[in-house]
Amino acid sequence: MDTKQILTFKIAAETLNFTRTARQLHFAQSSVTAQIQALERELGHALFERLGKKIKLTESGLQFKGYADQIVQLTREAEAKLTDTPPTLTIGVTESQCTYRLPQLLKKYTRHHPKAELIVKPVNFDAEVCEGIMDGSIDLGWMMGTHHSASLIIEKDLIDEPMVLVAAPETMLGNVSAISANDLNGQTFLLTSKGCTYRVLFEAALAKQQIIAGTIMEFVTVEAIKQCAIAGIGLAFLPEITVRAEIEKGLLAKLNWQAAPESISTYLAWHKGKRLTENIRFFIDSALAMYGKDHVSVHPEK
């Protein structure tokens, strides 16, 4: 039993004429007859009496019509409800990318999908994004750092994010033309939480140069790190885009340490089994067009 058969029965029960039913539903009359017969076989009851060219409902047909009316009505209500349901998109993204990369992209997305439900989940670690992608709580992850080897995650490269080491201009290193490893020994470093991609990258560079920090101060937000660096409390290693304005205003100075990691990769990621609805495909394409290395549309060919 399917909704097409039930709708055909409903119309036939109202018109009591298979020819008119076929015309109303744009079916061949033989199709109407076949659907009614299939429904009768499945129910195990005759729904119509055939009296020559005329038909009438049997007692079973009269009883079933009430159910058929309800089924058709509920189906139409469900279809209308689903049609009116706005598309959703949940993005997992680090603070720096959320603050400095996403706004222009979200502006484009919301213009194209003004009724869409959008949830942006700021995260500190890529592992959180991966977990969300795998359990379905995150549709798309905006990731930084090393690509993941999980076979169920699809990744598309975005830009390499330039990184900088900064300090307040009035500090001891603020005006040094070239920073040596010895200059950094014993310094105070203002860093993001342990496990953060660019903290891991920076600490690996320090270890490689055998640099021992005097003090490490850990912060949850980039903004807190910036303000402490501006206050002269210590040195910060951050995405260049997060401190560009402060450098231009002279509030922070970019330190010339040749061993500092120059950039960190960024990419979009989603579950291999994720159904890419039109709004999600639009976001991916827009992100790749705006920030992608090699833009390849995820829209299916038309």
Automatic annotation (TrEMBL):
Q: Keywords for this entry? A: DNA-binding, Transcription, Transcription regulation
Q: Which CDD domains match?
A: PBP2_LTTR_substrate
* One Pfam match: LysR_substrate
MF terms in GO:
DNA-binding transcription factor activity; transcription cis-regulatory region binding
Stretches assigned to the HTH lysR-type domain: 1-58
Q: Which family does it belong to?
A: Belongs to the LysR transcriptional regulatory family.
Q: What is this protein called?
A: LysR family transcriptional regulator
Organism of provenance: Sporolactobacillus terrae
